[in-house]
Amino acid sequence: MTNFDYDLFVIGGGSGGVRAARVAAGEGAKVALAEEYRYGGTCVIRGCVPKKLMVFASEYRESFADARNYGWDVQDGAFDWHPFRKRMHAELDRLEGIYRNLLKNSGVTSFDARATLKDRNTVELSTGETVTAKTILLAMGGRPVKPDLPNAHLGITSNEIFLLDELPKSILIVGGGYIACEFAGILNGLGVEVTQYYRGAQILRGFDDEARGMVAEQMREKGINLRLGINIHQMSLAADHDPDMTGPVGDDGTTPLSEAGKGGPIYVKSTQGDEAEFDQVMFATGRVPNADNMGLEEIGIEIGRRGEIVVDEYSKTTVDNIYAIGDVTNRVQLTPVAIREGMAFVETVFKDNPTPVDHDLIPSAIFTQPEMGTVGLSEEEARDQEPIDVYCTSFRPMQTAFADRPDRVLMKLVVSQKTRVVLGCHIVAPHAGEMIQLAGIAIKMGATKEQFDQTCAVHPTMSEELVTMKTPMRSA
Ligand code: NDP
Prior knowledge:
Elements: E1 6-11, H1 15-26, E2 31-35, H2 41-46, H3 48-69, H4 81-105, E3 109-112, E4 115-119, E5 122-125, E6 130-138, E7 142-144, H5 158-161, E8 170-174, H6 178-189, E9 193-198, H7 209-221, E10 225-228, E11 232-237, E12 266-270, E13 275-278, E14 280-283, E15 287-289, E16 322-324, H8 335-350, E17 364-366, E18 372-376, H9 379-385, E19 388-395, H10 398-402, E20 409-416, E21 422-428, H11 432-444, H12 449-454, E22 474-475
């Protein structure tokens, strides 16, 4: 029998990797973990957590006027990025400390180092050390990508947005997915002039049409200059842009970076022909798995078309003792999913209980303003599958209507005509994320529309509409 240094070596200290390491150690395994950047991964360090803190900060803008309409004698305040940024990073430091301690207290050995694979049992660390393990778990996450466009390096991504020294006065956000739409709302709320370019016909592709249409409409009402069917055609530093030329001015077709222009405004010409300058350009054009330059293919691990590690339903790669979880597998890029994949991995490998990962009916929230919560099939997906009834209502909620805000909410259930099972639920409303978590339980249990209706309404709330919609709005 071969002796290894560890039973399990985890590469990546994000939500999935840390959870798997801790739980495996709790089962008595000897576990080590390597993280090259900061513990907590995308979610804690440059994703969900700081993003949500910024959402909270940005939502105060509308609350001053609301408060006045509720009788409070308050003046509009100005947002100061510096003290907020300091508090936000102090919070991230605190959370990172918790993650480190959780590992330590579970008996996991941590390496602050980049890890690569030498062979199927050997990990090489950037510190020069080499360790061996019986099982290896790859949990390296993903990273944002910029489009292949001359001068794209002038733009930032969601990685840098939390680290800005100053908030820009104006920003162009490129993309129409979760990150683009969330940051359009955040920065608009913080007082930045926001333009968003999305190349398709409507933002949030893949979500329910009616719900995303409502989000887009209210993003515009709140002041975001949301442009559809548009992309960047050219970009360069404004200081380097020569208006007499039709394109960038460098020898190689790219714009030379003048010293003076560093950090200066960025000139953008769109595919629709208009020209503008922005203090910042942020690309939210998708994320790619962190699976490159790690020696994976060399030892027989299959990498998919989008750079993802290919795994089976137990998160096993094409090499028997090596597993992969989370964004690096490009299944569903959500923190709770990575955590569940990590737990299922431990059940399978360390508890002798083969557990496939259930990726069905995952509720999720998009922290746009207004917020959107969704679980199950969109109306469009469902009607392609079977005959459906759509129950839907849209109204001005009491709290903001009283404050004279035009905000509207949407409550929508997509129901199978045959079985009456609720196939999808879509909510656009303040705290839609909180609501969809609870609706998600019923829908995961296979509740029918009639079972929703048997549940007594909670009054007066917005979500009571989910159990009081009597007549279908339409059938398809
Ligand atoms: P998405 O894949 O959701 O969106 C990428 C966007 O960029 C799409 O609108 C896409 O357009 C557009 N795009 C891609 N390439 C280009 C290009 N070359 N030029 C212009 N536009 C382009 O990625 P995100 O980065 O927004 O988010 C990544 C993942 O992170 C999400 O899928 C989600 O799983 C997760 N996430 C979850 C959050 C949450 O739960 N609240 C919050 C943030 C992220 P098109 O639609 O045409 O392809």
